Amino acid sequence: MNSAIPLREYALVFATAVAVTFVVTGIVRIVARKIGAVTPIRDRDVHSVPTPRLGGVAVYIGVAAAFLMARNLPTLKDAFAGNTEILAVLIAGGLICLVGVLDDRFDLDAISKLAGQILAAGLLVVFGVQWLIIQLPGSAEDGPTTLVFGRNEQVIITVLLTVLLINAMNFIDGLDGLLAGVALISAAATFIFSVHQYTTSTAASAAPPPLMAAALAGACIGFLPHNFFPAKIFMGDSGAMFIGLLMAAAISSASFKVDPSLFGLRTNIALLAPLIVALAVVFIPVLDFLLAVIRRTMAGKSPLTADKRHLHHRMLAIGHSHRQAVLIFYLWALVVAGGAVSLALVARWQDMIYWWLASVALALVVSVQPLLRAQSRKQRRERLEADARALGGSINLQKRSSPSRTKAEGTDV
């Protein structure tokens, strides 16, 4: 396998996904309107006009075109040598995209969608995309511990991760451009991490993850011009579920396939680096998903019941505009995913901690800025009211004292 990063080939794959997705999205938008795959105005939605969905079909076609391009490139064809992971993504992704299309058009019930998700995740496992081992830190004397999963554990872990990511990505698809942007950042982080594996490993199994990530990143960029506020087309369940499945496949494929000593770190953190990156790239959607499940369960509702209390809804509620809320989520995705990748790949990770904490502080300030402005306005209003009351009291005193002075002046006259 080549030790040099085939940047031109990755750029060509990326550009293919961008161009194909951008062009096909315009066609899909027309088709969606003709077949009635249009999102109506609902209480929980923030859009104000009926908008076509099925955008995920264009994303899937863009990713498939990128894979086809890679299949014919001198170096990236390694991703197809001796394994079926890319084929797994195309087959399982096609199935989950079809389930999403049916839901976008006919509003499937939750059980039917879950069955489709489990079936698609199972197809990934059948074609070899699965978690095999986890390396855990150990003592200096004993060294690291390798936890090898049995066949049943591999199936359960991979299916659970895939279903979790499918639904987590679907949960955050509530604002124009939100899902595509967060997925783009997550794919970029996965690419940076996994391409390091690709260039330091001699195993062909290290080739598919960066290819998956590059194709997904390109498809998201190609889709964003159509989807950023105000959106002309939505991802729909077809896009959200396909992106979740592709992210799960890339993370599962990238994790624990290379000796951690190949990374810049030489400490126990190196052993956890793949897990840290995997958790970071899905942190925001999974956090929103878990909060929604807890909130709805405590309210006695189904965890799959839709509401208007997601994290992006809360950003709007505290005073951010639609675009501001989306950009803030981009910022948080950059902070979390970027910090994790730095921790995994930078030798002096201790120095990065300070920069990461500063980034977190900046993101917090930006996130709560409307609350800070509202508090500042409230304090200013209270000061003005206090000054007005004080001034009013002074005027009243002057009015009460004026007749006395007039009477006194009249007596003197």
TrEMBL record:
Top-level taxon of the source organism: Bacteria
Primary localization: membrane
- Which terms in the Gene Ontology molecular function aspect does this entry carry? metal ion binding; phosphotransferase activity, for other substituted phosphate groups
Q: Where is this region: Disordered?
A: 393-413
Q: Which Pfam families match?
A: Glycos_transf_4
Where do the annotations place Mg(2+) binding? 170, 237
Keyword set, alphabetical order: Cell membrane, Magnesium, Membrane, Metal-binding, Transferase, Transmembrane, Transmembrane helix
Query: What InterPro entries does the annotation carry?
Result: Glycosyl_transferase_4 (IPR000715), PNAcMuramoyl-5peptid_Trfase_CS (IPR018480)
TM spans, by residue?
A: 12-32, 53-73, 79-102, 114-134, 154-172, 179-199, 211-229, 241-258, 270-294, 325-347, 353-372
Which cofactor does this sequence's record say it needs?
Answer: Mg(2+)
Question: What protein is this chain from?
Answer: Undecaprenyl/decaprenyl-phosphate alpha-N-acetylglucosaminyl 1-phosphate transferase
**Source organism of this protein record:** Nakamurella antarctica
